[in-house]
Amino acid sequence: MDRETARVEAFSDGIFGIAMTLLILEFRVPPLPQGAEDGRRQLMLELLHLWPSGVAFLLSFGTILIMWVNHHGLFKHAHGADNRLLFANGFLMLIVTFVPFPTAVLAEYLDRRAANVAATFYCATFVLVSISYNLLLWSVVVNRRHDAAWPEATIARVKKAYRMGLWAYLIATATAMFWPYLGVAICFSLWPLWAMLRYYERQMK
Amino acid sequence: MDRETARVEAFSDGIFGIAMTLLILEFRVPPLPQGAEDGRRQLMLELLHLWPSGVAFLLSFGTILIMWVNHHGLFKHAHGADNRLLFANGFLMLIVTFVPFPTAVLAEYLDRRAANVAATFYCATFVLVSISYNLLLWSVVVNRRHDAAWPEATIARVKKAYRMGLWAYLIATATAMFWPYLGVAICFSLWPLWAMLRYYERQMK
Amino acid sequence: MDRETARVEAFSDGIFGIAMTLLILEFRVPPLPQGAEDGRRQLMLELLHLWPSGVAFLLSFGTILIMWVNHHGLFKHAHGADNRLLFANGFLMLIVTFVPFPTAVLAEYLDRRAANVAATFYCATFVLVSISYNLLLWSVVVNRRHDAAWPEATIARVKKAYRMGLWAYLIATATAMFWPYLGVAICFSLWPLWAMLRYYERQMK
Amino acid sequence: MDRETARVEAFSDGIFGIAMTLLILEFRVPPLPQGAEDGRRQLMLELLHLWPSGVAFLLSFGTILIMWVNHHGLFKHAHGADNRLLFANGFLMLIVTFVPFPTAVLAEYLDRRAANVAATFYCATFVLVSISYNLLLWSVVVNRRHDAAWPEATIARVKKAYRMGLWAYLIATATAMFWPYLGVAICFSLWPLWAMLRYYERQMK
C-alpha cells in the first residue's frame, strides 16, 4: 500500500465512522409529562418501546462494521489511486452513507402489512452494496502488483465470493417481494460470509 | 508533500467526508398510520415521493466527491502549510460545508415557479466554489518547488481550467435568472471537466 | 504498533470524536417571542434552564474522553489487526456511540420519580462498556509481543482493574434499582480510576 | 513531534472538522406553500431572511478555523502525550464543540432587547476558550525539548499573547453586560491577533 491509497483509505474510514455514529441520532429521550402518576413504570415502558430503533441501530452498525472490515481487507492490496479507484470507492461511500435509511425503514415496517415493500427496499440496497464492492474489487485488481502478496488464487476466491454475493442479493430482493422475512433472512445469512472472508492466504500472514 | 500539508489534507478530508455523510440526515422514514388499509401501496408511494431528496443526495454527494478528487490532485503539489494556504483551504472548507444547502433548495424548487431563484442561488454557490479553488491553486503555486514534478505547462493548464470554470459559473448564474434549466445545465456540463482534470503530465506518472 | 492497528486506531478516534461532537446537537437556541416585555430576564432564565442539557453534555463528553484515553493506552500495545481485534473494537465503538443516549435519559430524569429507571439504564450501559473493554483487552493481549515493552505484571494489573470495574458496574446497576443516586455515585467514583490507569510501568516510559 | 502527539492532533482535527461541518445543520430549505401566487419573490425573501443563520455560520466557522490554526501551531512543539496534555486538550475539545451554541444565540438575539445577555454569554464562552488554550500551552511547554526549535523568547511571546487574550475576554464579558456591541467588538478585534500569531521565529522557518 502506498501513500495515495492510504489517503483514500483514511477518507473512507472517516465516512464509515461518521455513518456509524450518526445512527445514534435516531434515539430520542422519551418525554414524560412532569406530574406523571407512576413515572417509573412509564419510563421503563417507553425505553422498552424503543426496541425497533435499537434493532435498526444494531443492524446498521453491524452491517457498516462488516463492510468496513472488508474494505480494510481489500485496500491491503490496493496500489495507486487512479480515477477509477477514486470513483469506484466514491460510489461505495455513497451506498455506505445510504444504508442506514433502508435499515430504519425495515425496522419500522417489518411487523406491519407493508413488510414486503420495506424488505424489498432493504434487499435492493444490498444489491447496490454488492455492485459497488464488485466495482471496487475490479479497480483494485486492475492496478495490482503481480507479486506473491496477492496470488491469483486468492483473487479468484474473493471474486467468486463477490459474484455469488451479488446473485444472492438479487434472489433475496425477488424473494422479499412475496416473502419479506425469507428475503431478509437471505441477506443476513450472508453476514458470516463477509465477516469471515479472507483477503490473503493463511500461510502468508 | 510534507508533514505540514499532510495534516491540512487529512483535516480537509475529514470535512469532505462529514459533509458527504450528513447528507443522509435529509432522509426520514415515512410515517404511516398504524391501521392503514393498503399499507404496501402507500409505503411504496411514500418511498417514491422521496425522489427529490434522492436527487439532492446524489447531486451533493457527486459534487463533493469531485471536489475532493480535485483537492486530492492539487495537494499532491502542495509544499509548506503557511497561513496563506491554511486560510485559502479554510475558505474552501466553508464552501464545501455549505454546498448541500443550495443543492437541497434546488431539488425542492426546480419543478416549481420559484425555479429561477433556486437555480440562481445554486449557480452562485458554484461561483464561490470556483473562487475558493482559484485561491487555493494560487496559494499552492506560490509555495511550489521548482522541479520536474510539476512543470510550468501543467500549472498553466490547471490555471486555465480554473479560470474558465469561474467564467462558466458566472455565465451560468446570469443565465439561471431567466432560464433556470439552462443555467443548471451549464453547471453540470462542467462535471466531466473537473472529474477528468489531471494535475500531472501523463508521462510523469 | 504497526500500520494495521494504526488504521483501526484512527478509525476508532474518528468515532470517538464524532460521538463527542454530536453531543452539541442537544442544545437549541431558546426561542423567544419577538415582542417580549423583558427579553433580558427571559433569555437569561431560558439559558439557565438548559442546565440539564449542560450536565448531560459534560458527563457524556467526560466519559467518552476518558474512554478515548484508555483506548489510546491499550492500543499502544496492540500488534496485528486480526478479525478478533476488529470485532472487539467494533463492539466497543457500538457502545461508545450509544453512551450519549442513556446519559441524556439520566440527565432528564435524575430529579424526577423515574430516577431509578434512568439510573439503572445508565449503570447497565456501563456494564456493557466494561464488557467491551474486557473483550478488547483480551484481543490485544492474545496478539501481544513477548517483550519488555509490556511486562506480564502490567498486563495483570490492567486486567485486574478491568475485572474489578465490571464487578463495580454490576453492583452499581443492582444498587440503582433501589437507590438511584448511590448507583450513579458508584459509576462516577470509578472515573478517577480510569483516568489514572497506566498501561506501562513508570520506569519504562 | 512524535507519534503520540500525532494521534492527539489527528483526533483533535477530527473534532475541529466535525464541529465546523455540523454548523450547516442550522440551515433548512424554506418551505413554501405549493400554490403560492408569486413563488419567486417569496423564495428570494425567505432565502434573504436566513441571514442570521448565515452570520452565525460564518462567525462560528471562522472562529473554529482560527482556533484550529493555533492548535496546529501549538502542536508543532508538542512532545509526548502524557495525561496532562490529553486532558488539557480534551477540555479544549469540549469548548470547541460548544462554541457554535453561544454563537447561534448571539446571531439570534444581537438585534433584539436581550442583546446584552446573548453578548455576555458569547464573550464568557471565549473566556473559557482562552483558559483552555492557556492550559494547553502550559502542558505543551512543560514537556518541551530544550532545543533551538522553540527558543524561550518565542515561548514568552506566545505566553504573553495568551495571557493578554484572557484579560481581553474578561474585559469584553464585563463590558457586554452593559454595552453588548462593544463587548462583542472587543472579541472580534482579537481575531487578527490569533490569525497572525506565530509559533516560531521567522528566521528559523
Please sum up the structure shown.
Four copies of one chain form a homotetramer. The first copy, chain A, has 205 residues and is mainly α.
Question: What are the key terms here?
Answer:
mainly alpha, 205 residues, elongated, homotetramer
Topology, pairings included?
The structure is a homotetramer.
Chain A: H1 3-22, H2 39-48, H3 51-75, H4 83-98, H5 100-109, H6 115-142, H7 152-176, H8 180-189, H9 191-196
Helix pairs in contact in A: 1-3, 1-4, 3-5, 4-6, 5-6, 6-7, 6-8, 7-8
Look at the structure and give the mean pLDDT of chain A. 85
Report the principal-axis shape of chain A.
elongated
Distance between the termini of chain A: 16 Å
**Largest interface: which pair?**
A-B, 32 and 36 residues
Report strand % of chain A: under 5%
Helix content of chain A: over 70%
User: How many helix segments of chain A?
Assistant: 9
> Largest beta sheet of chain A, briefly?
none
Unreliable runs of chain A: none
Could you say which structural class the secondary elements and strand pairing of chain A correspond to?
mainly alpha
Number of distinct beta strands of chain A: 0
Give an account of the 3D structure.
Four copies of one chain form a homotetramer. In chain A, 73% of the residues lie in helices and 0% in strands. The first copy, chain A, has nine helices and no strands. The first copy, chain A, is mainly α and 205 residues long. The longest helix of chain A is centred in the middle third of the chain and has 28 residues, at 115-142. Chain A is elongated. The model of chain A has no long low-confidence stretch (mean pLDDT 85). The relative contact order of chain A is 0.12. Chains in contact: A-B, A-C, B-D, C-D. Chain C binds chain D through residues 1, 9-10, 13-14, 16-18, 20-25, 27, 29-30, 32, 34, 36, 38-40, 42-44, 47, 57-58, 61, 65, 68-69, 72, 195-196, and chain D through 3, 7, 10-11, 14-15, 18-19, 22, 25, 81, 83, 86-87, 90, 93-94, 97-98, 100-101, 104-105, 108-109, 112-114, 116-118, 121.
